[in-house]
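Structure catalogue
Derive tokens from sequence
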Amino acid sequence: MKKNSTSSEIPPNFFEMITETMIGFRESMEDQNHIGVKIAARTRSIILVVFATLIISSVYLVFMIFQMSSNMTDMTTHLEGMYSSFGSMSQDMHEITQTTSSMSRSISGMPLIADSMAQISGDVNAMTGSVYKMKQSITGIDNDMVRINSHMHEMTGRLYNMNRSINLMGNDVNQMAAPMNSGPMSGFWPR
């Protein structure tokens, strides 16, 4: 019986060993908690900076596309005015050509003047052809500007959708962070 009683006795330093082990465990847990808080604070600031940069960039892009779209509209308006001016100029050139031809026929008796008038008539005909080509080119530019304007409106809509998606992502991140706000890292995420 005495042998059983000595084997079940607890050594005198057993409680001290348990106490030292628990103190060491507590200190290591506090160190890990401190490191975790630092990491969480840095991660939070990085995420906030990234979201702020994304939001500012998307707002700036939408503003720039809106500015470009309004400038394109003004440019299209000016091109339409230029197109109508070239149309009236082409008509005026046609009348000048007819008048020059008439003058050339009227003074065909004077050879030098007639030759000069024939040359002037040819030059005016060439100018009329050039003005007509310019009128066609302006028409093509006008059509291109209308297409560019429609593409700009489409880009504005896509950027608006991207901005909306970024806002929805921010809401999703806040919802994912909600369980963390109630746990041991409750001060980590903004509310």
Q: What stands out?
A: The chain has one domain: 13-181. Residues 13-181 form one domain. Helices lie at 2-7, 14-106, 111-181.
